């Protein structure tokens, strides 16, 4: 895209907004060529507030945020007409409208291979010198997970602060919680209507719970006798228990996060001196934007270019294909898997059949052995089948166990509707899209979630039996579950919907039924009517898997301070596990079949091996610039992302040659169907020896499940490293049989006898542009 076309597309968007809402103000984010600032202005903020950016308007720009670290520019609440005029300013590189984002919402460290006194925990001193910035809903600092007992001084490089607000004093920060900030200007100026002071705290305090949960997953201290109302009892701890936490409240109660505030959080975190950023946030509408119009992609590039590792959640729109979020290649995108712990509950039907489900219900059990069973969807329509608000007739459901279909409204809200209507219990049945993926919830009444197949059996029984009855039996916590991990059905899947030459997600980590610290302002369901309070809560989502990788990055950064963000990601990806704890290939919860790299990327995070990966696939800023040129971005669009002027080569490079730890090859569907010839493509990779032995030889081999229809050749097949030659390049040629359908995959393994450096190779077919 040429600079002229980029500007025209932005103007067209704003002009459309102008015609539709001539009098409405909206928040816009402006990317400015900061090098053009006249020296007469002391700061960029002074420049933006001056007549130079007034465009003839009487009033100066009503600035919300001024960005000056990893992004240069500002956000402002303006009429579409004024935004359109500013878009044409010679020093404005890009402008985009503020958008709404959503949050992607004890035992898991051991499940990742971490052990006390040995391995990565010991070698990294539990991450004690690393600072993790968490962009989320804030923090509830009084939890034991944020104790600074026996921690050393705060790293001297730290430049952050503890912002005060209602119910949040500076004294709440300590040697563990080293910083806390909040960003609300985007919210205040938005169509959402600003901060609701009756339920929110205009401070870093977390009244939602999500931010406290994610921060403690990444870096929570050891908390003994932890549980959620008796479930998952044990010692709760984060992946990097001694790492420091800095929280940046960019999301507010109800999962509302705006791009302008998120970008301000990125900008401030980088200026404060964090080493890792954790972002469990993604698009609210399932759509993806080009990198130059995506503030998370832009903010994370600025962070990575400063040596900050950024992990982001893959989204919860699975199991459908192409549902993965946060697609930028400089991000580490994390999907979700299960761990070897479960919270089983059984539905017992009146005819004696037992059907398995899960539940975190902790109240009084059902008093009787059998209760009448009803499926309101049979007569009450779709809203009743979903147990939507005010959809249930108390005269019909009172005293009964109610079957509710999953979808549309929150799972726990369905139980509340059943309770309000006088029901004694609920069976939450998955639909076909959810498959057999089950998530435990701390329901407000006796309730159990069951998979799609079990749900169909229960509904058929309820509709066919003369007097259907049932009960629910709760079985507490079970450890040692097999198989685990399993790819969570909700986890975002590939292929990459923006650039299929990059495989996303990168890997998976624990994200199902994770115990971590919780807010003191909400019950475990998060419902306003839930008056229960608990120090810990159990949640599921890629929001939970993302901070596992953030904590892992902190450990690796502490053990290897000279590693780049790309090297850290490579170490995690190339040592990931492809097998579960039954030593069988990892399966997909949605289909119960073998998972593929489109489901789980490089595999499941395995920190027992990541400390010593042998080889890494490293990347620098110029590599990403070359990639952006390869996918057709012009220098102006690239500058919006990278902060610096860019020049693309005369001959467009191949996007597949980005030195990524996975290999994704695409072929054109049209050319594939034109004849029976095979299709072939070669890609280049370069590996760096980071092992203890400078002189070593790695040999390449390809492993492939049967029936893939691929031929893969590696040249050379032997890579010899010395102290003077720690980097070696090789070529991978992928040939696919001429059948342009489906996705195929294999694995490249480089081995020196002590290390197995493993990379997925995927092949997919795309429509021509």
Automatic annotation (TrEMBL):
Recorded family membership: Belongs to the peptidase S8 family.
A molecular function (GO) term: serine-type endopeptidase activity
Superkingdom of source: Eukaryota
Regions that span the bilayer: none
Every Peptidase S8/S53 domain range: 127-587
One of the Pfam families matching this protein, by short name: PA
Listed SUPFAM superfamilies: Protease propeptides/inhibitors, Subtilisin-like
Alphabetical list of Gene3D superfamilies matching this protein: 2.60.40.2310, 3.50.30.30, Peptidase S8 propeptide/proteinase inhibitor I9 (3.30.70.80), Peptidase S8/S53 domain (3.40.50.200)
Signal peptide range in chain numbering: 1-19
Domain Subtilisin-like protease fibronectin type-III, chain residue ranges per copy: 657-763
Keyword annotations: Hydrolase, Protease, Serine protease, Signal
Active-site residues (renumbered): 136, 210, 543
Domain annotation Inhibitor I9: ranges: 27-104
GO biological process: proteolysis
Protein name (record): Subtilisin-like protease SBT1.6
Domain PA: 370-457
């Amino acid at each position: 895209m040429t600079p002229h076309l980029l500007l025209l597309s932005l103007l067209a968007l704003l002009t459309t907004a102008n015609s539709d809402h001539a009098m409405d103000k909206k928040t816009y984010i402006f990317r400015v060529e900061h090098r053009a600032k006249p020296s007469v202005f002391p700061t960029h903020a002074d420049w933006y507030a001056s007549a130079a950016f007034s465009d003839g308007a009487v009033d100066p720009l009503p600035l919300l945020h001024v960005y000056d670290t990893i992004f240069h520019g500002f956000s402002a609440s303006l009429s579409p007409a004024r935004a359109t005029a500013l878009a044409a300013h010679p020093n404005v590189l890009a402008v985009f409208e503020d958008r709404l984002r959503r949050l992607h919402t004890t035992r898991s460290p051991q499940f990742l291979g971490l052990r006390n006194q040995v391995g990565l925990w010991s070698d990294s001193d539990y991450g004690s010198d690393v600072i993790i910035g968490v962009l989320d809903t804030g923090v509830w600092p009084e939890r034991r997970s944020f104790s600074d007992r026996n921690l050393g001084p705060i790293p001297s490089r730290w430049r952050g602060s503890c912002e005060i607000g209602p119910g949040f004093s500076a004294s709440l920060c300590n040697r563990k919680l080293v910083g806390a900030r909040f960003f609300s200007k985007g919210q205040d100026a938005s169509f959402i209507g600003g901060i609701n002071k009756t339920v929110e705290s205009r401070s870093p305090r977390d009244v939602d719970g999500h931010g406290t949960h994610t921060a403690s997953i990444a870096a929570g201290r050891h908390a003994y006798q932890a549980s959620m109302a008796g479930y998952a009892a044990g010692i709760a701890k984060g992946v990097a228990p001694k790492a420091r936490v800095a929280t940046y409240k960019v999301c507010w109660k109800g999962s509302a996060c705006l791009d302008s505030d998120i970008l301000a959080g990125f900008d401030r975190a980088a200026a404060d001196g964090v080493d890792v950023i954790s972002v469990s946030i993604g698009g609210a509408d399932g759509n993806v934007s080009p990198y130059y119009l995506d503030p998370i992609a832009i903010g994370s590039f600025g962070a990575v270019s400063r040596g900050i590792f950024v992990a982001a959640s893959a989204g919860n729109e699975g199991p459908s294909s192409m549902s993965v979020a946060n697609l930028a290649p400089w991000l580490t995108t994390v999907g979700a898997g299960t761990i070897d712990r479960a919270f089983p509950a059984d539905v017992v039907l009146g005819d004696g059949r037992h059907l398995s489900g899960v539940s975190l219900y902790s109240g009084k059990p059902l008093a009787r052995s059998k209760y009448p069973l009803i499926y309101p969807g049979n007569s009450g329509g779709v809203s009743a089948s979903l147990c939507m608000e005010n959809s249930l007739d108390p005269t019909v459901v009172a005293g009964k166990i109610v079957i509710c279909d999953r979808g549309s409204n929150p799972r726990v809200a369905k139980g509340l509707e059943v309770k309000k209507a006088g029901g004694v219990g609920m069976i939450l049945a998955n639909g076909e899209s959810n498959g057999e993926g089950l998530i435990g919830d701390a329901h407000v009444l006796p309730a159990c979630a069951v998979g799609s197949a079990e749900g169909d059996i229960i509904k058929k029984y309820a509709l066919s039996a003369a007097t259907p009855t049932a009960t629910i039996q709760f079985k507490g916590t079970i450890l040692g579950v097999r198989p685990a991990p399993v790819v969570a059905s909700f986890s975002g899947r590939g292929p990459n919907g923006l650039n299929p030459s990059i495989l996303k997600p990168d890997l998976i980590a624990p994200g199902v039924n994770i115990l971590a610290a919780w807010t003191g302002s909400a019950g475990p369901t998060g419902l306003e009517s839930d008056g229960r309070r608990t120090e810990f809560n159990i949640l599921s989502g890629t929001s939970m898997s993302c901070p596992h990788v953030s904590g892992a990055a902190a450990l690796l950064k502490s053990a290897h301070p000279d590693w780049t963000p790309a090297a850290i990601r490579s170490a995690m990806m190339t040592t990931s596990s492809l097998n579960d704890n039954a030593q069988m290939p990892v399966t997909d919860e949605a289909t119960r079949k073998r998972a593929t790299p489109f489901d789980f990327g490089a595999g499941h995070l395995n920190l027992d091996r990541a400390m010593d990966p042998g080889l890494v696939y490293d990347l620098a800023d110029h590599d990403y610039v070359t990639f952006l040129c390869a996918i057709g971005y012009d220098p102006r669009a690239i500058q919006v992302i990278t902060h610096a002027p860019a020049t693309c080569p005369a001959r467009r490079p191949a996007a597949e040659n980005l030195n990524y730890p996975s290999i994704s090859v695409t072929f054109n569907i049209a050319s594939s169907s034109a004849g029976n010839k095979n299709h072939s493509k070669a890609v280049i990779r370069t590996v760096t020896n980071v092992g203890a032995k400078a002189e070593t030889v790695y040999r390449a081999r390809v492993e492939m499940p049967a029936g893939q229809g691929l031929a893969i050749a590696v040249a050379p097949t032997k890579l010899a490293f010395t102290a003077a030659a720690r980097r070696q390049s090789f070529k991978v040629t992928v040939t696919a049989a001429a059948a342009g359908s489906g996705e195929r995959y294999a694995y490249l393994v480089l081995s020196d006898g002590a290390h197995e450096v493993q990379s997925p190779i995927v092949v997919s077919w795309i429509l021509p542009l």
